[in-house]
Predict the structure.
Amino acid sequence: MDKVPNDFLPEFSRALGVELTECSADLVIGTMTVRPDHANRNGVMHGGAILGFADTLGGVASALSLRGNDKTTTLESKTNFLRPIPIGTKLTGRCEALHNGRKTQVWQITLLREDGKPAAVTTQTQMTLTWESPA
């Protein structure tokens, strides 16, 4: 697997604290340490931050196969929240290809807590589009 530089990440993903550790055409692995500003009112990781991490990994995975001026966008994303994620936890996200076609890709992203237990599972569809800059 190849390491992809973290400057490949969008600014939003870097602000979340996402770091890429391994990348290939069928697998992207990243980490994110949960900070106090990622918390919900119950003192655990907010669902929006969880989705931000999962969407980052799905987007990176799709972007690795783009050609020319093509771009990728999330078409659909569904997450099951399985366990709370305490502040201070270093999450590991595994994004694995379920389908890698020319125009759509389907990814399964599993977010694992430090104890090895899955905290959330996202199934996401990414679409490839030919990019035209807005006028």
User: Anything to note?
Assistant: The radius of gyration is 15 Å.
